[in-house]
Prior knowledge:
By secondary structure, the protein is α/β, with parallel strands linked by helices. The protein has helices at residues 11-23, 34-43, 60-70, 82-91, 105-131, 158-169, 177-184, 194-207; strands at residues 3-7, 27-31, 48-52, 75-79, 97-100, 132-135, 138-141, 146-149, 152-154, 174-176, 217-220, 224-227. The strands form three sheets. The chain has a five-stranded parallel sheet, with helices on both faces. It has a four-stranded antiparallel sheet with strand order 6-7-8-9.
Amino acid sequence: MSKVLIIEDEVAIAELEKDYLELSGFEVEIENTGDVGLERALKEEFDMFILDLMLPGVDGFEICKKIREVKNTPILMVSAKKDDIDKIRGLGLGADDYITKPFSPSELVARVKAHLARYERLIGSNMAENDTIEIRGIKIDKTARRVWVNDEEKPFTTKEFDLLVFLAQNPNHVFTKEELFKEIWDMESIGDIATVTVHIKKLREKIEMNTAKPQYIETIWGVGYRFRL
Ligand code: CA
């Protein structure tokens, strides 16, 4: 569930925002002063901030600036004056959106939803870039430990997955069965290097179009195996 922090000194407005966001399935917390709001925004994990501009103590300008120094979490600024919106834009504080009081609660909810969706897509695409190996038709998500062959997901056991990742991360390198056994099974296994042969066979059944003519994991006779790039 997405968690939203509202920093707003007008209690009635904060409660109204909270009610509508909770009806839409968000988890919502309120802080009525800038000081505590800022402290929590920096220390705790939230998915979005709704930030009133005029606050006692630290104001919304300062809070926005401080959050942006360390976090990319979406910020929706709320102001009572239209002029302030221009000021926020002009200052380039890094707020994602602006809304002027009075606003309709459904408008607020729609904006929060849109920013959260955009932010989640952004995080999602960054993760895929960092932790995915793609070689021709094979896609390996190392973080989620999932594998797709020509867009179809295939199930892999722990050792099959480890072996596939090791080979795919070291393409065009020939490994002997002994080397692969040592790398993947190490000392924990009661098996022997025949285990490697069995696992290579299983991998081929899952990733190769034709196991008799492997396109990915090649056998180098008398030596071992090589993942073709
Ligand atoms: Ca205020």
